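2024-03-11 09:14:02 DEBUG pipeline.ingest accepted 1 chain
2024-03-11 09:14:02 DEBUG pipeline.ingest length=169
2024-03-11 09:14:03 DEBUG pipeline.predict start
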Amino acid sequence: MKKNRFGGRWATFFLAAGLFSTILISCKEDKGDLVGQRTVTDIIHENPEFSILKEILDNGGSPDAFRTQDATFFLPDNAAFQKANIASSAAISKNAALPFLNSLIIQGIYNVDNDLPADSLKTAAVGKKIKFVKQDKVVTVNNSEITKRNVVAANGLIQVIDSVYVRVK
């Protein structure tokens, strides 16, 4: 007498089909799963070369100062602060932090390789302006050389500068 293995084959088939469909369904990406582009604030917090600027941002009581949309940000790195004899964020008082941070922002996205304005531009800080100068391949803003150009962030472009170009009180 022949044994009937028909039930075992169907059980194996359904088990394999169920496993395969589970794998397919679990591998789909939702929009919520995708990692978005980082904002300027995120980049500052993740990058150790901006540790002094991060402290100013956090200790100055204005952690959202760099969340402005469609702007160009002129960020001094730690070497720029050291060049200005600023060893920590303690050199900038809490009251001076927001005006200092706003002086590093201009509205509009300026790719320094292509979009240099001829005139000076107003910063987000009241009464502060910046001026671009391009000589050969060197671009400066208020006599600070741009060392890293056109770093893309979710809310604008970052230009890393080699010195602190505003007065700190």
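2024-03-11 09:14:41 DEBUG pipeline.report The chain has one domain: 40-161.
2024-03-11 09:14:41 DEBUG pipeline.predict end
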